[in-house]
Request: fold
Amino acid sequence: MITIDGAACRSALMDLSIQIQNAMVTVVRESVAETEKHAKATTLWKDQTGKTRRSIAGRAQGAIYGEVKAAGAAKYLEHGTPPHVIEPKRGGALRFVVAGRTVFARRVQHPGTAERPFMQQARDHGQQVADYGAEFYVSSAIERYDARG
Reply:
């Protein structure tokens, strides 16, 4: 006579499910941390004030959600800018230095800036970390489950 213990099987599957859930929490947390670190370490642009780099921050929430945000000039760095006119906010003149000489102007035609997709590169890096982590941690949880016999 063969007997099958359904309760033991259900308990083992619940344990496996919990281990996989915990593994995915770790994957999301590590992926967000790596994405944030990669974005802050970019060399695609040089800091003038440091505000944008300091604004880069990530947060992970459970096993399904993580985000990394950047403020300051991030959107202009990421996507670039088209050519545009710069005028002073309250009349007067703009003051800037060109070749060591101070220049004043009522308006300036800015040529625009090229995009520097540092957040996209950081996201791609974070996704690779997540993919590898999911494979590693979930496989480890399944191996531990198999080892229980």
